[in-house]
Fold this protein.
Amino acid sequence: MHMEVGLLALQTLRRAEAEVHLRASTTLFEWSRGAAVEARNRAVMRRHAFEKSFGRDQPEPEIRERIDRRDYYLTLAGAALANGFPTTALPFAEKARLAAPLDPEVQLVFGCVAESLAQEELLRHHQSEAARLRDDAARALREALALDPGADEARLHLGWLLLVRGRLAEAEPVLEQMERRSGDDRQRYLARLFLGRLAAQGGRQDEAAGFYRRALGAWPDSQAARLALSHALEVVTGPAAARPPVAASLAASQRLDRATDPWWLYPFGPPGVAKAALDRLWKEGLDR
């Protein structure tokens, strides 16, 4: 119950209240696991005593932890990040990493949490702390890819991290591979958007415009791609060429049925991870 209330409080932006409930939840969770270990140890001692006294084993009900520690902390980390609270997510992501260091999804979530925290530190003008967090994020994302070479979401985030740190020669093949491999429209869109920015930073505005057009092909309602395209066209040929994408972006912004631009959701981590982990948790613990 404490976990559910805490997550609901995060959804309504009541962070202090959420952290009280999440702290209570983690305390009870760890206590229950410790109690299960003690109960198993006592059961072993009773069996040995019974066998010594009566010459046969005494059957006892199995005592086991129903909730996996990795799933529990991954759920909390993913949900906190998805609600826009990477600071709250970080200790849970660290505990998930301790519980399952060889799990690529855990490494991915930790990398995304550190990446979002780095952006917050940049907004506070804490350059050195942001650099440290970006290093932590890159290491986790590389680890995720080493554990699962098909982890395209990790590849996407790693490519963006390399790009924003100015390591264009390293970022380009990572993003190109991501764009070639993925069959997901959202991932292809973001990879093309990032490749367009990379080309623009390298002074290749014509190539950047091509990537932004391809990004629109993957996600036609993208405001970010339209505005980036208009900027690239303005640099190459002048203001007249930039006006149609801007006009199209303004027109699209008035449509209520437009799809949400994945770029706006990018800082909140990989979509679906928190929900999938939460579903596993309910199945393990509550048989829902």
Notes: The mean pLDDT is 84. The CA atoms of residues 121 and 128 lie 9 Å apart. The radius of gyration is 24 Å.
